[in-house]
């Protein structure tokens, strides 16, 4: 068929759709005429919404608040787009939402908004029994006879004309069976306001009864008793919205439904700093995101959601925008260092972060104060000593040798540093500081230290009422103290989420040393939702012997008790004699998956250099790839390519780890201390464990036999 023919066919379809919608509206208008107790405005809006009931929605009209004798809610609407708590307004003057207030005709109607929010909370409570997150429940004010499309905080304000297309355009959240279960439940909890009325279902067509004027307030004067007309029925808008909704995929199940344990954490009232931990894939980030949305809907302040990695905030922000668009603008997703830099700029504190010049300063310090010292007897390479300065000395904010001297415990460091070693490290540190300050530059740790000093000097200097920290095990002691300083021990102020087993950086700290008390406010999640059993078993085997101390001080065995929920999976081990054969096998595995599977596949490498190597390999083989630095959580074609560090917090259906068991840089026998070697290998295993547990369905492990 030619282009003209298909245009004709589309026009035909559009006309048929339009005819159908108008017929549905007329039928709905007949039905709502019978709802005598409804006000004129409610009936007009209900007629528009009743059209949605032909598209799988359930409309519950005029319901009593649970536990109340007199309070009612105009409508509860449950459908593929979620649950909507609706207050209908039939106002003489046009509503305006500005400066955080709802006004009309010069009067303020904030109490109406508060009332709607209150009943929305009741609906949230009710649907939690069906494991629905509060993000699936939205307050909505609909203005009869008006065209409005605005937001006031979490409340959506829509005109009679706009409401149907807006709801049709919502992304698919509930399946038909879920709509039924949730609506049935709400119907039981929110009883019919008029017990005798049958106003929740279609009624027999009957002549129109005269509309009763509403008594809700001075603005609530009804329109003149006009007959129902469909001028406020936006057929084209509904059609376009339906097409738009059909184009976008349903939102992920976890963005709506939570396990009761997760839901309890999201909704809990904490009297101070709290901690959520648990093994890989147990839904810690899911809880953190729902919690951020929950808090954002309840506090006037903003929420800061922080991770260590630079790429995660983009991805997590995309997730929140999808699952809770109404609050997405009230949550700031930031990496710790970028946030601290911004904070210093805003506060007018001078800082000059220059990684290269700081590296140069350390290089010079090593040459003059490291080489030829006792430090070389433990590890002749400077990297370990740079880590000691970054993670143990500066990361913990130590400023005097006596703080660093024995018996200071160096968490997760395996070398035994006696006093002469520590003196040598301290001399190296001081020289580094002299060189660095001589150049007038800062390193990352300095930025955090400056921000901490500023936050302590001016408490309450940020707009944040809550701070959520994800992957907290990667932060330094100073970083965690900084975030604690922003909100202190306030109720629901600080939430620390993470898993000590997934630490991919050296060093560590204890929350108690940072003055953060989470006793009685800690929860461990145990149900893994991500990994197939085979994959989790293979990953746990890597770290089975590496027990670790969590940041709250709990000693934990490497092989942990985890409940599995996920289905079958596959681990493929490929051992090749040469690197070329190994790479060929990787390409064969990717081609076998095929282009449809590539967007949910990843190739993860131990280092940035390795990642570049595989990027070139994939490009030459014609396999599209995007790096994890570019990925923002939205679906894009192509395989994801990144380092183990960048893959933290993410997941993919298919994960490939080329050359995954290549030996760590330092090995026994090259003069390096046994403790250093042990520590490197342990860190190596933690990183590999993190990379392996990114896989949901299949895991490909490549090895090269090195003769
Ligand atoms: N309630 C749920 N229902 C369905 N799936 C869930 C649920 N909670 C979590 N998941 C699934 O499990 C995956 C892992 O969750 P999440 O990333 O929050 O785990 P995590 O504990 O933060 O993992 P990690 O520590 O390994 O980064 C989610 O992406 C989601 O696919």
From TrEMBL:
Q: Where is the composition biased (Low complexity)?
A: 211-220
Query: Which PROSITE patterns does the record match to this protein?
Result: NERD, NHR, UVRD_HELICASE_ATP_BIND
Q: Which domain of life is it from?
A: Bacteria
The record ties this protein, via PANTHER family, to: DNA 3'-5' HELICASE, UVRD / RECB / PCRA DNA HELICASE FAMILY MEMBER
One Pfam family linked to the record: NERD
| UvrD-like helicase ATP-binding domain segment(s) | 257-551
List each copy of the NERD domain by range: 37-136
Entry keyword set: ATP-binding, Coiled coil, Helicase, Hydrolase, Nucleotide-binding
Coiled-coil ranges from the UniProt annotation: 11-38
Q: Where is this region: Disordered?
A: 196-221
Annotated NHR domain residues: 641-707
UniProt KW Nucleotide-binding keyword:
yes
Residues recorded as binding ATP, renumbered to this chain, are 278-285
Q: What protein am I looking at?
A: UvrD-helicase domain-containing protein
């Amino acid at each position: 068929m030619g282009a003209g023919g298909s245009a004709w066919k589309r026009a035909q379809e559009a006309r048929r759709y339009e005819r159908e919608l108008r017929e549905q509206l007329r039928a709905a208008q007949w039905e709502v005429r019978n709802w005598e107790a409804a006000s004129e405005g409610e009936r007009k809006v209900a007629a528009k919404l009743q059209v949605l009931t032909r598209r799988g929605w359930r409309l519950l009209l005029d319901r009593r608040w649970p536990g109340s004798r007199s309070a009612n809610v105009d409508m509860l609407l449950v459908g593929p787009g979620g649950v909507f708590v609706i207050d209908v307004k039939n106002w003489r003057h046009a509503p305006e939402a500005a400066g955080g207030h709802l006004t009309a005709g010069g009067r303020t109607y904030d109490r109406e908004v508060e009332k709607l929010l209150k009943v929305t909370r009741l609906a949230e409570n009710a649907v939690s029994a069906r494991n629905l997150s509060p993000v699936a429940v939205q307050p909505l004010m609909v203005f009869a006879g008006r065209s409005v499309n605005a937001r006031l905080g979490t409340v959506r304000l829509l005109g009679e004309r706009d409401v149907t297309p807006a709801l049709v355009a919502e992304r698919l959240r509930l399946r038909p069976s879920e709509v039924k279960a949730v609506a049935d439940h709400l119907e039981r909890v929110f009883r019919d306001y008029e017990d005798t009325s049958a106003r929740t279902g279609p009624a027999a067509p009957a002549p129109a009864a005269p509309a009763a004027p509403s008594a809700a307030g001075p603005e609530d004067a009804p329109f003149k008793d006009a007959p129902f007309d469909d001028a406020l029925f936006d057929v084209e808008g509904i059609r376009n919205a339906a097409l738009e909704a059909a184009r976008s995929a349903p939102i992920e199940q976890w963005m709506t439904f939570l396990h009761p344990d997760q839901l309890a954490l999201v909704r809990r009232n904490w009297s101070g700093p709290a901690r959520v931990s648990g093994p890989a894939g147990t839904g810690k980030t899911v809880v953190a995101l729902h919690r951020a949305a929950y808090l954002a809907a309840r506090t006037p302040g903003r929420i800061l959601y922080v991770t260590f990695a630079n790429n995660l905030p983009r991805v997590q922000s995309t997730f929140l925008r999808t699952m809770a668009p109404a609050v997405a603008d009230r949550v700031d997703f930031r990496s710790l260092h970028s946030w601290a830099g911004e904070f210093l700029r805003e506060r007018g504190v001078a800082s000059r972060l220059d990684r290269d010049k700081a590296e140069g300063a350390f290089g010079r310090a090593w040459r003059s104060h490291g080489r030829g010292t006792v430090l070389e007897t433990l590890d002749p390479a400077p990297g370990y000593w740079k880590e000691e300065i970054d993670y143990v000395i500066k990361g913990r904010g130590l400023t005097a040798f006596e703080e660093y001297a024995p018996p200071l415990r160096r968490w997760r460091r395996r070398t035994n540093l006696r006093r002469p070693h520590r003196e040598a490290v301290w001399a190296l540190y001081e020289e580094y500081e002299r060189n660095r300050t001589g150049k007038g530059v800062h390193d990352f740790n300095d930025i955090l230290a400056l921000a901490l000093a500023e936050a302590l000097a001016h408490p309450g200097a940020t707009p944040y009422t809550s701070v959520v920290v994800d992957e907290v095990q990667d932060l330094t002691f100073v970083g965690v103290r900084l975030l604690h300083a922003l909100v202190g021990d306030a109720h629901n102020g600080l939430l620390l989420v993470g898993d000590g087993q997934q630490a991919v950086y050296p060093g560590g700290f204890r929350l108690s040393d940072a003055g953060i008390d989470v006793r009685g406010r800690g929860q461990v999640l145990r149900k893994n939702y991500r990994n197939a059993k085979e994959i989790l078993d293979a990953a746990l085997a890597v770290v089975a012997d590496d027990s670790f101390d969590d940041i709250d001080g709990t000693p934990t065995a490497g092989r942990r008790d985890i409940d599995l929920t996920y289905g079958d999976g596959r681990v493929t081990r490929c051992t090749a004699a040469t690197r070329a054969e190994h790479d060929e096998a990787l390409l064969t595995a990717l081609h076998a998956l095929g282009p449809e599977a590539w967007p949910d596949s990843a190739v993860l490498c131990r280092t940035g250099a390795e990642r570049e190597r595989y990027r070139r390999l994939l490009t030459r083989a014609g396999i599209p790839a995007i790096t994890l630095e570019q990925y923002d959580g939205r679906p894009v074609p192509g395989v994801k390519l990144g380092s183990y560090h960048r893959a933290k917090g993410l997941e993919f259906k298919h994960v490939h780890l080329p050359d995954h068991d290549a030996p760590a840089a330092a090995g026994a026998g090259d003069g390096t201390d046994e403790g250093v070697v042990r520590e490197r290998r342990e860190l190596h295993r933690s990183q590999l464990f993190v990379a392996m547990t990114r896989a949901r369905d299949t895991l490909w492990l490549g090895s090269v036999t090195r003769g």
